[in-house]
Fold this protein.
Amino acid sequence: MQIITNNIKIWLHGLFAAAISAFSSSASGFLLLPNVFNFTHTGMLNMVRVSVVPAMIAVFVYLKQSPLPPINTLGPGDVVTVKNPVVTPDTISGSSATLTKASPENGQK
């Protein structure tokens, strides 16, 4: 069973791309104001402060436009077979599991 689906991989790619793009764009201040943003401890802290805020805003905007895609692992008619099942009040676990997806009936998806 695959935990991270292709939809989630694409979503994570977009999320990281938004953050990196905003961070690198705001990091251009490093070139424009070398007295404020330099390789000293204070200069690097200033750079992080100025770069992180736009990256966080970009991430929040991305999350608003593209919320986490739903995980459609189990659907109607799907069958899960578990070897050596252990049933507790909260979970069902086992040594291995097999998922058999239901076939679409009458050509419907």
User: Anything to note?
Assistant: The first helix runs from residue 6 to 26.
